[in-house]
């Protein structure tokens, strides 16, 4: 599980997120969870990175789950590339459903 915190959209923050996702991708887990409970809003850059990794991971049969997504990510979503879970329990249940 990765835990996002409020940060600016600097190249360092984006690089750290990308490196953390790359490490998580090599973990061998069936799903990667990103906890956004400490985040009010995700920048367009961060959302684009998450969508990119979600699509790539889906091809690898790995699920990227966004836990406690901020309202800005939930509102008006027509794109279903990101699996959103309102809580960690919901994330667990959604991942179980995907496996069966």
From TrEMBL:
Q: Which SUPFAM superfamilies does this one have? A: SpoIIaa-like
Q: Which domain of life is it from?
A: Bacteria
Query: What name does the UniProt record give this protein?
Result: STAS domain-containing protein
